[in-house]
Amino acid sequence: MSTPHDDPTCQSMREAIHFGLAVEGSVATVTLNRPDKKNPLTFESYAELVRFFRQLQYDDAVKAVVVTGAGGNFCSGGDVFEIIEPLLAKDTKGLMRFTEMTGDLVKAMRACPQPVIAAIAGVCVGAGAIIAMASDLRLGTHDAKVAFLFNKVGLAGCDMGACAMLPRIIGYGRASELLFTGRVLGGLEAERWGFFNRLCATDAVLPDAMQLAHELASGPTFANDITKKMLAMEWAMSIEEAIKAEAVAQALCMTTQDFRRAFEAFAARQKPVFAGN
Fold this sequence. Notes:
Blueprint (H helix, E strand, L loop, with lengths): L7 H8 L4 E5 L2 E6 L10 H13 L8 E6 L10 H8 L4 H20 L4 E4 L3 E3 L1 H8 L2 E5 L3 E3 L14 H9 L1 H10 L3 E2 H7 L4 E3 L4 H13 L3 H13 L5 H15 L3 H11 L10
Parallel strand pairs: 2-3, 3-4, 4-6, 5-7, 6-9
Antiparallel strand pairs: 1-2, 7-8
Helix pairs in contact: 2-4, 6-7, 10-11
């Protein structure tokens, strides 16, 4: 992996110790890398991931992000003994501080301008399923096991935005089933329900996600940022409000050099080379 050294994301890479981070060209790959426990999260990895995704708002070098897990699994959620057990000793204020921090990870992923692609194999449960949900695109495998396990540990399904986001991805009834029961969603069913954008072979899911990330990174990234923002904003808009907002957003994109580059390339019968401005 080639790694530029003068951007803030790579500075974060040198500081991150609770997950793997590599940059190849304009694509950053985040690897949850505790394979002996199927890559659970800790207080520290939560905090580092929040900082990383927040920094991406100011990083023009990274154009797309891939999130994956080491050792054939995506993420087994919060570590039982490093997160769940310590939470039993916290008071209400301490618990609120924790749940707000976990929600900050989803907010940071949604706020970063880069498209985030999850490459999912094996176990993807609890907070791991939330990270997958918060990604913009999800590539999965036949052996993937997705589950929102919160009710299995005596908690509500309304965790880290799940009750808001999951119904918008797979529909209200299906989201209700998963959040009320905590049952496992297999790879084929996840693709059929629309949680996975597509299925890949287990050894191909990360390369396929990387290929897709590089394709998006070579596109009109300013316009991609606008698309991501509008997808989020228009959840709370009427159709009339959305059409008005999209008119403003699209007019803004028409002021970019990438829009001009696309026309000039078409006129010259060439493929456009976008620069993100």
